[in-house]
């Protein structure tokens, strides 16, 4: 059996990007456009591994303070990414790091080529998941009211959109990326699943689903028939797929379980790592109850979101589905079977 070829190192990726830019310039592309597209691709490559694991999601390259975090959350709610895209957010505090990375690589670009965004500005970079032939640059400068979207394709400046305010530009990000990165008319099941679950994860991150930008026609929780599911099956499938990531890991979940128990005065036993790994009945039950609370909170958010055919809570299958989802999430987080003695509730 032949082994898979090793992935390119960051240094190899940088070299390939500038080799590509050189070929484009030799073929007649404007040097400034070719080099700008190369630098945008380098910014994507700085997060190469993460982007490949999380296509269709926006990654902030660095968040330096509370203002940048609030900006990121606002952008997250309004940016609607197609499922087969990579996207990163460069914040004002990140720009110097990128300059340092470029200097460390000792690459030569044309003398007139500078970073394709202003100091103290935000920049969103969007591209396809494969060869980055087409890259979108969303420039959101804090020092001026205007903002713009530029699209580069194979070293050429393909398109430009200008806006009077940053707010106008951000509002357009529910539609403009689809002009250049929309999948084919017939989506695959994988694309539908990725797109729907990325939308919901954004809602979890921002703690606000209602009003979150989405193309509802491609969401299986809005249209369960896309995956041949019932409304009940779609809702619980979505939660089973996304809640483990929201809870992060077992250690974090144990911590939040104990904090929630203390804050709400639930009277639950203190949960410990040895207790869970040793299948202590009381501790396992407390952890399962914590997961059930998480599920219930997200169910309430989905029920209040316009356009979602939420299942009837009186459906005889509702409580069993809730319990089975709790059990499966428990097993995903702990890496252990949920003890039979632990009752999961809906």
Broad shape: elongated
Q: How would you state the average pLDDT, rounded?
A: 86
Taking Cα atoms only, what radius of gyration do you get, to the nearest Å?
Answer: 23 Å
Proportion of helical residues? 40-55%
How is the main sheet built? 6 strands, mixed
Supply the number of structural domains. 2
The count of helical stretches stands at: 13
| Tally of strands | 6
* Portion in beta strands: 5-15%
Helix-strand pattern, N to C? Answer: HHHEHEHEEEEHHHHHHHH
Look at the helices and sheets and give the structural class. Answer: alpha+beta
Strand order of the largest sheet: 1-2-3-4-5-6
N-to-C span: 48 Å
**Unreliable parts:** 1-6, 109-114
What's this, in brief?
With 346 residues, the protein is of the alpha+beta class. 49% of the residues lie in helices and 12% in strands.
Task: Describe what this molecule looks like in 3D.
The protein has 346 residues and is α+β, with helices and mostly antiparallel strands. The chain has two domains: 10-182, no CATH class; 196-334. It contains 13 helices and six strands. Strand 4 (134-141) and strand 5 (147-153) form a beta hairpin. Helix 4 runs antiparallel to helix 8. The protein is elongated. Mean pLDDT is 86; it is low at 1-6 and 109-114.
Question: What order do the helices and strands come in, and which of them pair?
Answer:
Elements: H1 10-26, H2 31-45, H3 48-53, E1 58-60, H4 66-78, E2 85-90, H5 95-105, E3 121-128, E4 134-141, E5 147-153, E6 156-163, H6 166-171, H7 176-181, H8 189-206, H9 231-247, H10 250-264, H11 273-277, H12 281-303, H13 318-334
Parallel strand pairs: 1-2
Antiparallel strand pairs: 2-3, 3-4, 4-5, 5-6
């Amino acid at each position: 059996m032949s082994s898979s070829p090793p992935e390119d190192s960051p240094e190899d990726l940088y070299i390939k990007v500038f080799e590509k830019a050189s070929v484009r310039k030799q073929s007649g592309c404007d040097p400034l456009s070719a080099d700008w597209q190369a630098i945008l691709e380098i910014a994507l490559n700085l997060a190469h591994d993460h982007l490949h694991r999380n296509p269709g999601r926006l990654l902030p390259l660095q968040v330096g303070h509370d203002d940048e975090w609030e900006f990121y959350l606002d952008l997250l709610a309004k940016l609607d990414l197609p499922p087969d895209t990579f996207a990163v957010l460069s914040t004002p505090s990140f720009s110097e790091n990128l300059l340092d990375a470029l200097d460390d690589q000792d690459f030569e670009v044309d003398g007139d080529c500078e970073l394709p965004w202003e100091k103290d500005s935000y920049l969103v970079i969007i591209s396809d998941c494969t060869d980055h032939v087409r890259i979108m640059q969303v420039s959101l400068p804090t020092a001026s009211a205007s903002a713009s979207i530029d699209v580069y394709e194979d070293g050429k400046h393909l398109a430009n959109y200008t806006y009077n305010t940053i707010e106008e530009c951000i509002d357009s990000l529910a539609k403009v990326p689809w002009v250049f990165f929309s999948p084919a008319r017939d989506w695959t099941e994988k694309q539908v699943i990725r797109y729907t679950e990325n939308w919901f994860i954004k809602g979890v991150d921002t703690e606000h689903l209602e009003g979150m930008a989405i193309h509802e026609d491609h969401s299986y929780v809005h249209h369960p028939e896309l995956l041949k599911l019932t409304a009940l099956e779609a809702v619980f499938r979505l939660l089973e797929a996304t809640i483990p990531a929201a809870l992060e890991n077992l250690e974090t979940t144990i911590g939040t379980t104990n904090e929630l128990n203390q804050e709400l005065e639930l009277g639950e036993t203190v949960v410990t790592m040895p207790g869970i790994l040793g299948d202590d009945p009381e501790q396992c039950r407390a952890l399962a109850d914590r997961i059930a609370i998480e599920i219930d909170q997200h169910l309430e958010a989905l029920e209040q979101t316009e356009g979602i055919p939420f299942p009837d809570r009186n459906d005889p299958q509702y409580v069993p589905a809730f319990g089975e989802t709790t059990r499966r999430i428990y097993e995903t987080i702990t890496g252990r079977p949920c003890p039979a003695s632990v009752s999961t509730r809906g």
